[in-house]
Design brief:
This protein folds into 2 domains: 136 residues, Immunoglobulin-like; 155 residues, Sandwich (Immunoglobulin-like), CATH 2.60.40.640. It contains 1 helix and 23 strands. The longest helix has 7 residues. Strands 2, 4, 5, 6, 8, 9 and 10 form a 7-stranded mixed sheet that branches. The protein has a 6-stranded mixed sheet with strand order 15-21-20-17-18-23, with no helix packed on it. Strands 11-14-16-19-22 form a 5-stranded mixed sheet. It is mainly beta. Keywords: Sensory transduction. Pfam families: Arrestin_C, Arrestin_N.
Length: 338
């Protein structure tokens, strides 16, 4: 007995709460007289897995989470004791299933995944069962208009006192980082405005800003553990120098790559967060001065507007210029290779 199965859905991607219209086409090359049942299973699940150590000392960490499991019987029933007979040839069945409203988006990572599948199971008496599986995509949209903090301007000032043998090398280096808001959409340009006041005696070689994605995986067995992947998505580099006792302003745009947003709010074993990593490259053998700015990446509610230069006191004792002046006098940034 040979069976062919073709599973088709009306869409390739769904939002939580949408209804899946599924067509199942079964093609039997000969009559089948003892079919117990044929079921269509809709399932959503996530899993994580990684190994630490090697050989006898290795430990594999895992976790699983199930969001739904629903069966629809298109021939027979789960507990039916009667055998069903199907003629040779093609048989078509239509099945509908409404997704739950609280689901995470589909995701595939190095140490875990979130998958949604449709499986057709043909249970034939006194014969091997046949299974056919296809995946479909779920996208849980992130609406930035529903996240008030994503619409607020960002102004962060960080400073660093450079020393050698505990002796200060001039005054502090101060960097003020400004965004018009902290929520951005896929393929949107992030407008960035910086003021760098170098009161130190250390030469500043340049500034890099990287959009990074942190993926955190959690395990439950054999005990709780955490695994993280930190991925660089895009980079903006200000290829300029800042001499000793000098203040400069910079403006630039960093592009959010397509398909960056991924809503895993309803998944407890995989989380994703985004941030801007601001790195000042220093001369000599000194480590870079680095700090992070959290941002939210969404699908809906894209906002637009010029970068805002927030008031702050400059390191030279003067306030920063207006946005218009900063734009005229600033040095543009150029994208850097990742």
């Amino acid at each position: 007995m040979g069976i062919k199965c073709d599973i088709k859905t009306d869409q390739t991607s769904y939002c939580p709460g949408q209804t899946i219209n599924c067509n199942v086409q079964l093609d039997f090359d000969s009559p089948v007289k003892k079919i117990k049942n044929i079921s269509v299973r809709f399932k959503g699940e996530s899993e994580t897995k990684w190994t630490r150590g090697a050989g006898k000392n290795s430990i594999t960490y895992t976790a699983e989470q199930e969001y739904f499991r629903n069966y629809v019987y298109i021939v027979g029933s789960k507990d039916s004791g009667n055998d069903n007979e199907l003629a040779a040839g093609v048989h078509n069945y239509t099945v509908k299933f409404t997704l739950p409203t609280a689901l995470p988006s589909s995701f595939i990572g190095r140490h875990g995944s979130i998958r949604y599948t449709i499986k057709v199971h043909v249970d034939v008496a006194w014969a091997f069962d046949s299974n056919f599986v296809v995946e479909f995509n779920v996208c849980a949209p992130v609406d930035l208009n529903q996240i008030p903090e994503a619409q607020l301007p960002v102004s962060i000032e960080q400073s660093k006192q450079f020393t050698i043998c505990c002796i200060p090398l001039g005054g502090p280096y101060r960097l003020t980082f400004n965004l018009p808001y902290s929520g951005f959409c896929n393929e949107q340009k992030i407008p960035i405005c910086l003021e760098c006041a170098n009161n130190s005696n250390v030469y500043i070689k340049g500034i890099k800003i990287a959009l990074r994605k942190l993926i955190t995986y959690h395990s439950e067995l054999p005990h709780k553990d955490t695994k993280r992947d930190d991925v660089k998505l895009s980079v903006l580099k200000f290829q300029v120098s800042i001499d000793k006792q000098q203040t400069k302003q910079f403006t630039g745009e960093l592009i959010v790559p397509a398909a960056t947003a991924c809503n895993l709010a309803n998944c407890s074993i995989i989380q994703i967060s985004h941030r801007l990593e601001v790195s000042t490259e220093l001369s000599g053998c000194r480590s870079n001065f680095v700090f992070d700015v959290p941002v939210t990446i969404g699908h809906l509610g894209q906002m637009s507007g010029p970068p805002i230069y927030m008031p702050s006191k400059g390191a030279m004792g003067q306030g920063p210029p207006s946005y218009d002046i900063a734009m005229r006098n600033s040095t543009p940034a150029v994208p850097a290779n990742i």
